[in-house]
Amino acid sequence: MMADLERDIRHHIERETEDNIARGMTPEDARYAAFRKFGNVTRMKEETREVWSLVWLEQLLQDIRHGLRMLRKAPGFTSVAILTLALGIGANTAIFSVINGVLLSPLPYKDAKQLVVIKENDSPPNVKDIQRQVRAFSQGGGINVEQMDYTGGSEPVQVRVGLINAEFLETLGVQPKLGRIMAPGEDVQGGPRLAVVSDHFWQNYLGSDADAVGETIHLGGKSFTVIGVMPASFALPVEHADVFVSLWAGNPRAAADRDVHFMHTYWRLKAGVTLAQAQSEMDAIDRQLAEQYPAEEKERKRQLVSLHEWLVGDVRPALLVLFGAVGLVLLIACANFASLLMVRAFAGRQELVIRAALGAGRGRLIRKALTESVLLSVLGGASGLLFAQWGTSVLLALKPEKLARLSGIHMDTRVLLFVLAISVVTGIVFGMAPVWIAAGADVAEALKEGGRSTTASTTGNRIRKILVTSEVAVALVLLVGAGLLMKGFSRLYSVNPGFNPTNVTTMYLQLPTTRYGEIPKQNEFRRQLLTRLNSMPGVQAAMVTDIPLGGNYVGHRLVIDGRPPVAVGGEPLVQTLSVMGNYFQVMQIPLRVGRDFTPVDREGQPLVAIVNEEMVREFFTHEDPIGVRICWAGDTGAPRWMTVIGVVGDVKHSGLNQPTDPAVYTPFSQNDEAWRRFMTLAIRARDASPGLVDEVKRQIWSLDGQIPVSDVYAMNELIATSLVQQRFNMLLLGLFAAVALTLAAVGIYGAMAYSANARTHEIGIRTALGAQQRDVLRLVMRDGARIALFGIASGIAGALALTRLMASLLFEVKPTDPATFAGGALLLAFVVLAACYIPARRAMRVDPVVALRYE
């Protein structure tokens, strides 16, 4: 096409030039006029460029068609190359999908970059003070999600109710799909009981009725009027809520209590205001509140952080480590890919040399070969998308609950562009070296029949060994990283939680305010329920406010009798739990000193308490705690002194990898906190009977048929759930290490097999001169041992540098753990030598006569 078009252009220009000269023009003017007749010079240049573009495109299409034909002619090579890249690119794409959904995708809120949170919970009165005084915020609001009983269906159920102030939903920038949200004038003491329901609640409990706005629903024994329905796309940043009601309507006592810090608060920065400026204003209000309310605010420091950072800050290190690990897997896959291309390039170098002899330039030859390389990598990327789709499903199936924004993980345009980019770059970068070497082969030498031992071939063999050595080093880095995580997880899993979880089932109950607002009624229900449950054959039952590993607990500040007075607001903060029944026996928490609670420890009797060992270590280091009196700081009226009667073992309440907090246990029956209407049953059975939960529910509903039961878990499930993030990290890095080890073994085998095959003539000569099979075996294995030695040495150096980045993910394991490094090195050395042994065995069987005719 180019030749025909160029010939026509030259023909017309030359003919017009001759005619102009015949008319008496100088040659220069004649040629210029010819150009003007067919358009100005600029136009001709543009046409020429267009012609060249078309020619280049046509050549590219020719190269693509030729490349596809060549790949079809070598199905074995094509399949191996595509599969190798598909594994590396697919694994990278799956992890990138997670990173894209969690770290890169914008939050689904209006102007989400302006949203910030206060790390610590706050109290409703403090939220009001911040709204009035901090000028950096345009809006702000808070929420606390509680479980309430909903009695509008066939049986009572627990729903999650978000207790909010009127500005909360507006701060997030969302509007309901039906009705409206609350107005500030409605969020006041004695205001109307209004509810905004989620799309899930609207569909499942209100029948997706378009006329649901205006209906009445019953929550916690109170009636609320539905005024709005949120869109299906709306979700809270962290928690889940089925219904949103005013805090004043849902829990008026807490709404006025400055000492109850239970609201998660969200704030929207004004346009042009930085986070640092807002933090400066927040520091000022901290000082003011500490002076004005020392008992509640003296030690509180509010730290602002962007909403995005708050959501992903804890998981970012783990995800980046995993992304780095899967990137190393891709490097190994690319090294194998480059080795395959190098072998193929040398096998076909005579064709390249013949093309060069016929006039093809080096650039043309390299472009042709690179087209084939990029075709392979793009096909590998396309296949990798299938692996990635499957891998993403596996990641979600692992249910890493602490991983924020799981709903945002999917294949989108950014992921597809990532796959395209990584595929093209892989094809160009890792296809360049072998093609350049092959294209640079000596023409005369390459055309010889015995041209196997050319300088280019020697150079290529050296490069292949460097690639394989790099694979070994990278594989060792991954093996050591996976080993460290496995060792840390093993130690974490073996941590004593402080109780025996076997055959223990837990379930959550909350008594409605309308029927159980008074403490005597609450205690009577608890006693009757435990009596019924403990009469069941083979069952021991007790209850506690917050179950271990349940995710939260209530804290109080403490005063110890006889100690020097502490400034108001500076008293020590301890975990507080109320129990009833033989709780320590049911959970098998050991009693270290003193006695357990008995039925005598009830209303009207001297107040008693049991503390944990951490409490003793922190506050009674040189003192016997039995008989010491303690009370809660901030009690109005005369102090309610409790006598310590026992010490129990520590319980890992917040997590197996978290420190134990000082804890105080008190009997439910001696509490004066009517708001503690919630409880968790702990039921130990002789065996895991499938009908146990149903029988317990029947016993509960025989006492009160309107009390819902929720959060039914086996304690072993709670322990497993608490470890899900660590297990997620360990499984993924272990999987990547296994893939890397497999790819490295394949690469080593391929390199050694090619090397042994190239030395067939040499081996034949050695055998003819008297070399034994063991000498041939030693010859081949020595090359493999050298690769293993250099690769392991480089891998250890790399692991020492890179595993330090994993320190935050490890539990009681140092990033430089010698045993893990040694184990990884030994395993990799075994795999390398095993991969070398097969081609070595084949070389041992070489027939000298055949070998001498090989070249």
Word description of this protein:
Strand 6 (216-219) and strand 7 form a beta hairpin. Residues 449-456 have low confidence and may be disordered. The chain is globular, with a radius of gyration of 37 Å. The protein contains 29 helices and 21 strands. Strands 1, 2, 3, 4, 5, 6, 7, 8, 9 and 10 form a ten-stranded mixed β-sheet that branches. The protein has 855 residues and is an alpha+beta fold.
Please describe the structure with a list of short key phrases separated by commas or semicolons:
855 residues, alpha+beta, 29 helices
Question: Strand content of the residues, in percent?
Answer: 5-15%
Radius of gyration: 37 Å
Q: Based on DSSP secondary structure assignment, what is the total number of beta strands? A: 21
Low-pLDDT sequence parts:
449-456
What's the shape? globular
| Helix/strand/pairing category | alpha+beta
Query: How many DSSP helices?
Result: 29
Helix content: 40-55%
Overall pLDDT level = 80
The first-to-last residue Cα distance is 44 Å
Largest sheet: 10 strands, mixed
